[in-house]
Amino acid sequence: LGDGWSSVEISGWISGFFPDVLEPVIAHNREMPSFRIVHRHNSGECPAAYAAWKGFDGMLRGQRTTSSCRWGDHQIWWDLEAANEVEALRRLPRYVSDRAVAVRIGEVDIP
Amino acid sequence: LFSSCPPVAVFDDDAMIGFRWIPGELVLCRSGFLCMSKRRSIGSDKGSISIWQARPQSRRPLSTAWHSLSGVAFLIEKARRCALGAGDEFVGRSSELALLENVLNAVALGKAGFASVTGEAGIGKSRLLRELGHAAVAQGFLALDGSAAEFELEHAFGVFIQALDAYLETLSDSAKERLSTDRLGELGVVFPALSSLAHAVEQPVSATERFRVHQAVRELLERLAVSQPLALILDDVHWADSASLELLFSLARRPPNAAVIIVWAARTGQGDPAALQTLGLIQNLSEVQNIQLGPLEVKDVEALLGGRLDAQIAHTESGGNPFYALELASVAKAGNRAGKHSARDVGGIPTTVATAISAELSALTPAAREVAETAAVLGDPFDVDLLSATVGGQPDDDVWLSLDELISRDLIRETDVPQSFRFRHPLVRSAVYTGAKPSMRRERHRRAAEALRKTGAPAVALAGHVEQFARRGDASSVAVLQEAGDHNAARAPSDAARWFRAALRLLPDDAPHLQRVNLLTSLASARAAVGDFSSALDALSESIDLLPSADIDLHTQLVVACAEVELLLGHYQEARARLEDSYRALAAADSPTGVSLLIALSLNRFYAADYEGALGWGESAVQAAESLSDPALSAAALSAHALGASWAGRIDAALESHRLAQTLVDDLTDAELALRLDALSNLSSAELYLDLYAQSCVHGERALRIARLSGQTHLMPVLTPVLGSSLWLAGDMQRSAQVLEDAVEAARLVGNHQALSLNLFDRALSALMAGDLEVALSLGAEGVVEAGFVDAGIVPAYAGVVHALTLLESGDPAGARDLILRSAGGDSIHLIAGTWRSTFLESLTRCCLALGRQQEALEAAGRATERATELGLPLPRLMADRAWAAIAMADGRSDDAVIAARSALGHAETLVSPTYLAFALVLLGQALAATGERDEAVGHMEHAVDLFESLGAVRYRNQAEAEMRKLGKAVHRRTRRGDGSGTGVGSLTGRELEIAGLVVDRLTNREIAETLFLSTKTVETHLRNTFSKLGVSSRREMARVLEGQDGSRTHPAPSVG
């Protein structure tokens, strides 16, 4: 991984390392439902909605997602997998989850 | 590789394990054990970074999964300067970062730490803080950051509000309620997010007691740091408001008892002189790690610029300043060869750099330029809504287009909050602000004030703008500035003074003189509250000059106020002259004004140790008040007389005036007393000198409460030393320490030598009586130093004798004797008033005995007896007997010692002071032991041990126990026994009961943790213990057990502190 590393793509699930657990994990993933979390706050709550993530340890922190805050609507959305709605909302800080709903989603074909 | 380069963070989220990505770092993971899922890729011309998250195969507990990692092959490579464009690299500061990380590591272990980063503008302070923030987050800290900005002083505690407020807003309602229950309502004074707590403040915070806010914030930080360490990162504090700097100083001097790191950055030599002075004081504290950033080396500049400009040239012309070097590079990129302009003649920055910023601005479209200039007026960071409302004439969409242009040119950047932006660097904002036409700038300030007014913003938010555009005679602007000053007076008096001055400047010449006097007295109070007494005196003198001669009452009030300021300065003679002049000018003394002057003169004489003078003026005050039929005024005069008489040793007269004053005072309501609070404060003082400690405590506490409620905290320097002393004499060591420590804190903040010395030596004495010799020595010595700043009088005298007493107890009788004789007026100790003179005559006796000066000891004891006979009060009699007992013991005349010690014990019992009673019991025990009367000696020692135990005077308790052992009596320390069974509700600790109560209220562990500021793990541990003790296996069962106890659940008293 010297200067030429920019083209390196590491798939991450390369086998050969002990223990090799690729298959069970994929199976596990397939069982997980997907949710879209819809969070809404008002304009005055905007700084708090972002500050709430500070000190919160979770996989969503530091990730990019979609928000309408800048344009005055103050909604944020996340898509994630979780066992159920409650588990999905637990991925958020309390302040944010108190103002959010988790909606189960899946792919469909549009005719 | 793993051991040499560990992952930056691992977190547990439903059995997920991941590597938190930190900007500027590359983390690559390969594992057969973990399922890697690609989350994000970022590319740049230097390459690309793929960020991965790892998921274990099953929902194993984190510890299991983590343990397994050691057997997994990991490849972790850090690569900097890849994802981010050139210019934001972190170069050349690794040693400074290492110093900060050392502090961070120490803090992670649970101790508070502080670090200061200083250097010129653009040298890389903010970048270093940012890197520290990443390191803190990687270590699991809650990292909160704020920054002060140029031209913005309106919000008291602004930089702390910026760092903490949004996060505090996210606290649950129960957590906020908990802060209120725990008497932390003062937080509502600071943080808008906690404003609902302000109602919980029982006694409002005044300017002289703003340390209470500091204490509340200190405790808040401790609570926030319970579940995870806290990093508070404050940038550009050289521009911070005075309240923020005071708070920072207070926190650094008395660090939170928790894992809290506070790191701040400040420009060298820039900012308000007062701010620089405070910052200097903070940086001199031993707890603070100071880091001075110097120029980058050539190789670092090369790395920074990435070949965009010759590094040697850039280094020479920028002086190794990274911001300047980047600006030079941008000039070069634009095709303008940078000339040699090392002279820093444009706002302290190189001309070339100023030119570069100017060129950036010139390239903007007119609309974007207007938006930038308006944003520079609004603040840094600035809010888009306010920007839109202020720009005027541009539709919102156009404002957004302009913002997009500014972002694309990297003049402004996003913040954590989408609707908030900040300039790339404060220098850029400064250039934009100062580059605008003055007339346009004024107009934008006017529009900003108007926009803020429409949103209902308080006067403090408007004041900064109003100050910029208002013209002389503008009444509405004067009103805004005065309101802003009043708002800040209690929390940020220094900033309040700025608004009062601005209001005075805008007042029209024909404004009513009372309005000007009102502003001047407000200004005087604000300046006095920050220790600038000469400015306060100037303002008061100016207001006196403004008054028409007919307004005698107000004139006298202002004269008394001037004298009070001079008294605080320790300038007793000037104050006396001022008061006497005013008194002579009075047509008649028998007026409320005349009585006030006479009382002030009496108090003035006390501080000058002229006790006969104090008595004389007190007598005059009583006579003048007689015909006025004003109970509060009479009580004030009588109290002053009682005090003067007790100082002068006229105990009968003092007791009579005390009796009359007490009757009047006890019949007056708090509201009535608020108008003459000196009646209560002087009564409490007189009681201290008349050996009436319990009454002194009652009246002192009442005076303290009314003083706070009515905002008369200028009386604190008089009140607290008296109350603190009466409390330890009455046996309440803890409350005494609290009152005096608070008073010391307040005096330090105000910067008043006299008040500081008074409270320091009283705290030293209270510590000595509680057996805390180290504290007594340290504070006593400081008290002596502070006393050196005031005129000769009681302050240096008392400071000296108190410290001498501590020296004697520490085994330095020679130093003690020397100090007593030097500070208290020679061997007569005549500078010490009333009953207290005997105390130090007894000390002098013991000093002389220890030094083998037998004759001198006899003379000192003789004078103690003379004083005791003269006064006839228990304390001087006790002290005289103690002196004679000590002499008899030294002579080996044990029988005489027993007689004197028995007499001393009798006086101690009359005195109603558990503290002195315990010492008298020890003395008698020692004397009896010397005569061989073991059993009685042991009995007295046992009683003394119990008393010292109840007083918390561990040192003296241990000494008394040692005496008992010498007498052959085994000592069995009594320990508090618990329930013993280890089961049932009775076996639960206070915290377990508290948590159990919240479980019954159906709170989840997470909610309980938030409410009590605990980690969820701690809550779980407590619950496991509670389940075990109660023999239950579920929350429901536990609730049944608790509710079944007596039908009603009892929450324990809330813990304070």
Shape of chain A: globular
Poorly predicted regions of chain B:
1-86, 337-345, 1046-1057
Helix content of chain A: 10-25%
Question: Which chains make the largest contact?
Answer: A-B, 50 and 61 residues
Task: Explain the overall architecture.
The complex is a heterodimer of chains A (111) and B (1057). Chain A is α+β, with helices and mostly antiparallel strands. Helix content of chain A is 23%, strand content 20%. Chain A has four helices and four strands, in the order H-E-H-E-E-H-H-E. The N and C termini of chain A lie far apart (47 Å). Chain B is mainly alpha-helical. Helix content of chain B is 62%, strand content 6%. Chain B has 49 helices and eleven strands. In chain B, the strands form three sheets. In chain B, strands 5-6-7-4-8 form a five-stranded parallel sheet, with helices on both faces. A three-stranded antiparallel sheet of chain B has the order 1-3-2. In chain B, a hairpin with a 5-residue loop joins strand 10 and strand 11 (420-423). In chain B, helix 15 crosses helix 18. Chain B is globular. Mean pLDDT of chain B is 83; it is low at 1-86, 337-345 and 1046-1057. The chains are: A alpha+beta (111), B mainly alpha (1057). At the A-B interface, helix 1 and helix 2 of A face strand 2, strand 3, strand 5 and helix 4 of B.
How are the SSEs ordered, and which strands pair?
The complex is a heterodimer of chains A (111) and B (1057).
Chain A: H1 22-31, E1 34-40, H2 46-51, E2 66-67, E3 75-81, H3 85-89, H4 94-97, E4 100-105
Antiparallel strand pairs in A: 1-3, 1-4, 2-3
Chain B: E1 17-18, E2 35-44, E3 47-55, H1 62-69, H2 94-108, E4 113-119, H3 125-138, E5 142-147, H4 158-169, H5 173-181, H6 187-190, H7 211-224, E6 230-235, H8 242-253, E7 260-267, H9 273-283, E8 288-292, H10 298-305, H11 311-318, H12 322-333, H13 351-362, H14 366-378, E9 382-383, H15 384-391, H16 396-408, E10 412-414, E11 420-423, H17 426-435, H18 438-454, H19 459-469, H20 475-489, H21 493-506, H22 513-529, H23 533-546, H24 552-569, H25 572-585, H26 592-607, H27 611-626, H28 631-648, H29 651-667, H30 670-675, H31 677-689, H32 693-709, H33 716-729, H34 733-750, H35 753-769, H36 773-787, H37 794-809, H38 813-823, H39 836-850, H40 854-871, H41 874-891, H42 894-911, H43 914-931, H44 934-951, H45 954-966, H46 990-1000, H47 1005-1012, H48 1016-1030, H49 1035-1043
Parallel strand pairs in B: 4-7, 4-8, 5-6, 6-7
Antiparallel strand pairs in B: 1-3, 2-3, 9-11, 10-11
